[in-house]
């Protein structure tokens, strides 16, 4: 049977992250202590794949590293983080709705300004001169 442990390069390819990203998550304490070979290469256990996949998905959904750490800590302590994840994502959706409303208002204002500016007849500004 082939050893399921991976080097950082293989892990990066399999999870779709860069080796620098994996090292960063390691420095930030999001990964368990990593074993090393006798010449110092990092060797990752298969469980790290699912952990990194979770981190990648959580970050894609807009969770901060602090929020991801909190969820991982809860899970490590044996507490189901499902309710906390649901609350965090509900907050992200609320913020997204607020941003959408803000952008729609911006679009309306820009459309109105664009319509008004088409009616405006101005003389062309000579090259190199500022319209002050």
Give a verbal description of the structure:
With 132 residues, the chain is mainly alpha-helical. The chain contains five helices and two strands. The protein has a two-stranded antiparallel sheet.
List key phrases describing it.
two-stranded antiparallel sheet, elongated, single chain, 132 residues, mainly alpha
Describe how the helices and strands are arranged:
Blueprint: H1 8-15, H2 19-27, E1 35-36, E2 42-43, H3 47-60, H4 65-76, H5 82-119
Antiparallel strand pairs: 1-2
SSE string, helix = H, strand = E? Answer: HHEEHHH
- Measured as a percent range, the helix fraction is 55-70%
User: Helix count?
Assistant: 5
Q: Please state the CA-atom Rg, rounded to the nearest Å.
A: 25 Å
The separation of the N and C termini measures: 77 Å
Largest sheet: spatial strand order: 1-2
Uncertain regions spanning at least 5 consecutive residues: none
Total DSSP E strands = 2
DSSP strand (E) fraction? under 5%
Structural class: mainly alpha
Quaternary state of this entry equals single chain
Mean pLDDT: 87
Largest sheet: 2 strands, antiparallel
